[in-house]
């Protein structure tokens, strides 16, 4: 057996770390039910399926089939309908249909040994070990792809398959880790030590990990440290639907962005439609201004700094019902988060947009009389030819019409500064790409998201950039360092 120092230390740290994460679904069902039948069935369902999907499918199935007897009464088709859309639902439905018959050999009970479990339809070593561990509390090592992968990253094993890893771990791993290794490493592997581009920069065991064969994710330089503790990181992002982004890992991305203030546009949701963890991102207070129309527009701000005051909208009903503006007043500046209207195909909303632009500028000018103003958001306009890949073709299209660009001219002439252009005069810097034509990969985009500040705050701007590598929406975030 190996020296247990390394594994004891990392398991201790990760045991504490993963308590903050969602519990893997099979463990959750184990804790909630202690029922070997439900643990076995949910383990079968969970293969190649996301935890959320497994949890919903298991809940539907257990409502109709809370035990083996009721499962036996369902047809394969009924089971398939109940567990859809778990991965390979047809095959799993066939396995589950055969399960009551197969369990007769064990007195219609789930067997509590590896050999017995391996005779059941749809049960391989991984499933069997997980059932032994979760349902029967027996020392078993369940090696799935996360355990296999992370053990190799740590150099604890040098193996080619999960089966080889299991065999080595049976010899090498101290027994006290057998039962918990799977739930800890699955949770950790889903959240931090991801299969592609793991988040080594925020990993609690980075100092211990040899990172064998790993290419960590690339994030922007942690420039805040260079800029001093009074510099605030402010990020604006049109997320094109916060509920959709949650499924793509918004909580992890927000952690990665590490902003002091994170302003989102086009959230397309009211707080009541969002999960608690998204409404209350750890470390932030959140503020919301959703549209009255469901699933449309809307803005929100997460802030680590407590504002003095919150202003909802512009005080003008025609815009405020669309949830387009949210302003936080801090001690020495206002942050306006704005989602400018789109002029729309055929320019049907151009007049509405120009009215909004005019009224927003008046609002910002008014606030700027009092203290600094930072105006960030999706302006829905590319200002100059340098700000989009195909200016000629788009001259009459929404977002690049002469009228919209003229307003942007007048906005800058009124004294506001486009902070990105204070630092970067290069072409090919975009913040939005169509979902069509592989536009993002080909960088056929538009720069329509901005941070602007009033003229007298120019020397408070430390840096501004575009975070083009952050995925999850058709826009990427833009960032401002402001002191
Ligand atoms: S440092 Fe990176 S590779 Fe190592 S465990 Fe952490 S996330 Fe995984």
Description of the structure:
With 483 residues, this protein is an alpha+beta fold. Strand 6 and strand 7 (333-339) form a beta hairpin. Helix 18 packs parallel to helix 19 (402-413). Helices cover 39% and strands 14% of the residues. The longest helix is centred in the C-terminal third of the chain and has 19 residues, at 350-368. It has two domains: 5-202, Orthogonal Bundle (Endonuclease III, domain 1), CATH 1.10.340.30; 226-482, Deoxyribonuclease I, Chain A (4-Layer Sandwich), CATH 3.60.10.10. The strands form three sheets. It has a six-stranded mixed sheet. The chain has a six-stranded mixed sheet with strand order 5-6-7-8-12-9. The model has no long low-confidence stretch (mean pLDDT 91). The chain has helices spanning 5-18, 25-33, 36-46, 51-64, 68-73, 76-83, 89-103, 114-118, 125-136, 145-153, 162-172, 178-191, 224-227, 242-247, 250-257, 276-279, 317-320, 350-368, 402-413, 419-423, and strands at residues 232-238, 261-265, 285-289, 299-303, 309-312, 325-329, 333-339, 372-378, 416-418, 432-433, 445-446, 449-454, 461-466, 478-482. The N and C termini lie far apart (55 Å). Iron/sulfur cluster binds at residues 153, 192-193, 198-200, 203, 205-206, 209, 211, 214, 216.
